[in-house]
Amino acid sequence: MTRQRRVILEEMQIPGKHLTADEVYQRVRRRLPNISLGTVYRNLEILSRIGRIKKLHLGGGRKLYDGGLHLHYHVRCVKCGKVSDVPAGPFGDLETAAGKTSEFKILGHQLEFEGICKECQKDE
Ligand SMILES: [Zn+2]
Ligand SMILES: [Zn+2]
Fold this sequence. Notes:
This protein is α+β, with helices and mostly antiparallel strands. The chain folds into 2 domains: 1-69, Winged helix-like DNA-binding domain superfamily/Winged helix DNA-binding domain (Arc Repressor Mutant, subunit A); 71-124, Dna Ligase, domain 1, CATH 3.30.1490. Helix content is 37%, strand content 19%. It has 5 helices and 6 strands; from the N terminus they run αβααββββαβα. It has a 3-stranded antiparallel beta sheet with strand order 1-3-2. Strands 5-4-6 form a 3-stranded mixed beta sheet, with no helix packed on it. A hairpin with a 5-residue loop joins strand 4 (72-77) and strand 5. Helix 1 packs across helix 3 and helix 2 crosses helix 3. The mean pLDDT is 91. One zinc ion (ZN) is lined by residues 18, 66, 68, 72, 74, 85.
């Protein structure tokens, strides 16, 4: 692992935070002033491919990266776009259930909740 990649990985370790490539770039640049956005982006793609971070495919158009590898879901505010973690615990083993009911070999799943965050609820 290159130093650049290690720094990027370190800057991703903020519990409950989900960052765009640009936000990661802003953080990493404080430590590696000469790094380019393209390099950050390329390393984020590699890190997600080798399973060190997760690339989130959420609605709303923003591509976010997640340093938290524990199984969890996400809820997205439909008003401001804020993304928060939702613990997966209460939902049980969805993939086993889907496999049983569909007779597919399940490889993965995506689940996203939509809602209105606390701050936006205040504005209503
Ligand atoms: Zn909101
Ligand atoms: Zn997350």
